[in-house]
Design goal:
Shape: globular
Radius of gyration: 18 Å
Distance between the termini: 65 Å
Largest sheet: none
Number of helices: 8
Order of helices and strands: HHHHHHHH
Number of domains: 1
Strand content: under 5%
Structural class: mainly alpha
Number of strands: 0
Length: about 160
Amino acid sequence: MNTKPRRAISGAALLGAVQRRLKQETPSDERVSPMALLSYARAYAEAGARLNAERLTEGHRDAPVQFLMHSIELYLKSFLRLSGRTVKQVWGHNFAWLAKEAEAHGLPLDDQDRYVIEVMVHTDAWSRSRYIETGFRTHATALRKEGQHVHPITWG
């Protein structure tokens, strides 16, 4: 039996280890094509729209928000991959950067699109939609209402 006490790891060391691991696990450009991202985005958008239309009365009624927000993220990443960005460049959840870059590369975003992205950037709606947390939430509800009008982004 090993009785040697474990060495405590600092927060900085843990963060560094996680960041190194994530860099190693970033998929290659060949494995994450723009069309694959687009297909996944459409699936999430459709799932979110259908759940939203059901007007859930049980459990976590704002669950469709997760699907709608993830579809927005994937649409932006798909467009940027199609515009020549690498997977490494679009990896992560920097929604402000994704939207800014997509607009700079010609993706038209209207005021409503920008509003939903601003909610994702400046609130915890995105992270809270992914994890169960009880209590009052205003941002997810606002985004759900806006989500009724979110339509798939297309380019051609």
